Amino acid sequence: MTNKTVLLSAAMATMADGDTPYGMCRDAAIAVKGAEIVWVGKHQDLPYDFADWPVEDFGDRLITPGLIDAHTHVVFGGNRATEFEMRLNGASYEEIARTGGGILSTVNATRSASEEALLADALTRVDAFIAEGVCTIEVKSGYGLDTEAELKMLRVARRIGKVRPVRIKTTFLGAHAVPPEYAGRADDYIREVCTPTLRAAHDEGLVDAVDGFCEGIAFTPAQIAQVFDVAQELGLPMKLHAEQLSNLGGAQLAAYYGAMSADHIEYLDAAGVLSMAKAGTSAVLLPGAFYTLRETQVPPVDLLRQHQVPMVLATDCNPGSSPLSSLLLTMNMGCTLFRLTPEEALAGVTCNAARALGISDVGTIAPGQRADLAIWDVSHPAELSYRVGFNPLHKRLFGGDE
Ligand code: DI6
Ligand code: FE
After folding, report:
1. Which atom of ligand 1 is nearest the CA belonging to 241?
2. I need a labelling partner for 210 at 20 to 30 A (CA). Which of 25, 58, 183, 241 fits?
3. pTM above 0.90?
């Protein structure tokens, strides 16, 4: 695209105007200058200033904000297809985790992989996201679990944003699992490895946020609090894998620390919802993990709605519980499995996803926003959630560039 362009299309879901479903605008125009959106509205209202700008007419298509995946583990070594097979032969996810499989098998594969190999492997997934109009991806560490391998994962995550037109937000997830060399000594791991590694990663500028896995098979709220204390001291925002397989009060802990989000939250109760609402903590729903693990406990969507907790949908792309690299399929799953409306699903991968990542210049179409846009071969935004396994992306603009 040239430096200045006016985009035209029959429909635009701005996700910016709370009063109109989808912030929908028909016969729309968007003026883009460089990487920035400078004017948005009906074509007929386009000011004279833009009259001589080049026009790109997308005809009957729909324009939305570029999509945002706010929770992924796209950097990892190997894969766990054989565990998938074990589960189909009767083993449970927790059993596999307790017998040294699960996350720990990915830790071994990630530790032994070179930075180049991890990057090449992650890019296969990142390219699938980009092909569906994704412009921002959150990427977690958490499969290294020693200083060297955690830093390696985060460096790979940063490199993704240098070799592909996509914005990467990194998250330190040192408290993801207890590594084998610390088996039965989770407190020692937190003190001797996890928090010093967080400091080292922060010193290298590798950390945008701090996460943990608060669960019976991972860390207690007290252990997570130790990590969050360091995050707070370093001025880093927090988020938490909470209430995925049981209710340990993780969401309340996250809210107490003013975390940006509590993620998974299938087992979240009313007290947890209230504390999230009060703290402004978003709910990141991960239907890919629910689907893969064949969970039956659905997150408390009605309560979240009632208390206006912003809902986000993300892939949780990881080799174990959610080998999913389609945000469009995630939207469909969010609607079909969790009963979100298609409008909530689109908000969950645009405006609400941006909020959960603490970024405000993307996720909506409005003047002053970055020109991260997706142009779709659909006429109604509900089509994005409705179809299963179909990619109607026509074009993606990342900061105004194709
Ligand atoms: N919850 C999950 O669903 C993933 N991590 C987490 O904390 C699972 C990661 C894996 O099984 O590799
Ligand atoms: Fe996760």
Report:
1. 7
2. 183
3. yes
